[in-house]
Structure formats: C-alpha cells, structure tokens
Task: structure prediction
Amino acid sequence: MRLWKSWILARKELAILRNGGARGIAMIVLPLALGVGLPLLIEYLIIKKSATEELLSSLLGAFPFFFIILSALIPLYISSYSIVGEKTEKSLEPLLATPTSDGEILVGKYIGAFLPAIASVYLGLTVYMLLIDLLTDSSFGYLYYPNWTIAIVYLLGTPLASIYGASTGVFVSSKVNSVQGAYQIGVFSLLPLIVIYVLGEIGIVSLGSDTNLLIISGALLVAVVLMYFLSRVTFSRERILTQWK
Result:
C-alpha cells in the first residue's frame, strides 16, 4: 500500500471539510459543549444539591464514556459523505479512474474523517478535565484528573472509536445512494456503545472500571479490523461507476 497516495486523498477530504459549513461547525461545537456542559452539571450538583463525594465520583467515572460515543459519532457523520457525496457532486469518477488501489482509497477516507474528529474530541476532553479539576480542587481539595481511567479513554477508547466511526461511515457510504441515507443507516452502528452506556447507568456495567474500558477498547479494535476487511472485500468501483444514479 502506498500511504502517500492515501494522504493525498485525505488532504482533499480535509479541504472539503473546511468548506463544509455546518459539518465543520458541528465537529467543533459538540465536543466543546460536552466539555463545558458536564462540569456545569457537576457544579450544579455540588452547589444546589450538596451531592456527596461518592455520588460525584460515580458520575465522573462514567462521564468520559460520553467522549467515546462522540468519538464514533463525529467521524461517522463526516465519512457518511465520503463516497456517496462525491458521487453526487460528480467528483468520484475521476478518483476511481486513477491507479489508486481500493485499500489506498479507503485508508485515505479514514484518515480524512479521523484526524479532525479526534482533534476536536481531544479539545473537548481536555476542557472537561481542566474544569472538573477546578471544581474538585475548590470543593474537595484535590485534583480528580489525570487518572488511569482518563488515560485509557484518551489513548485507546477515543482513537479506536474514531477509527470505528470513520470505517463504518465509509463502508455505508459506499453502499447507498444518498448522504442522508448513509448517515441514518450508519447511526445504527453506535447502538452497541449506547447499550453499554445504558447498562452503565442501571448499574450492570461499571464505566469507571479500567478493566471494562480496556475490554471495550479491545472490542473496538476488533470491530475496526473487521470493518476494514469487510470494506475491502465488498468495495466495488465498477458498481459505483456504472450502477449508481
């Protein structure tokens, strides 16, 4: 595989995203809103509800999982456009006519969705940690972060979820005939993460457990590998060029 060809394609994807208006704004606003909103909720519980340190610790253990879900959602949204969007705008045919392999095209599309998504999620996650530390330091006299939980989320959970979202979005985008359809179908791929979060909320799964987060990260890695090979096997440039309307 010639990664430099994938990088050229990724740069084109990033340029499209910069001119994407609402897509680019949503990519920045969502993580920042989460990074500010969750600490505001904690502050409200401390000041207005006199929440116990035990309750806050439970919430703070589960909150970073929101960023894992968001890490899958944002690249999914971006990459849902990647194939069918270019087909709609008549820019896909010249790409598929070049001597670029299917694998190089897929990797280029992944990178184009992964890089901006993970950068924006890291920004939101950093803001979240700083604000939470300000709250716990002023209320309880210690800094809650960093800890091993947030390290796993930072280094494994969010990047793997981002690659998962990007690969799923590209896969779905190569199978449908509209961007809207790609996004609507792709959202179903987030159901496993949402189910895990619900299980955490009702006390069946501890989202603050380092072991559980490592298992979830391992499952995401397996899903990424499977999605890549599934995309390679089913990607058909001939069908896209000749049968899509």
About this structure: The longest helix spans residues 102-140. The CA atoms of residues 48 and 190 lie 34 Å apart.
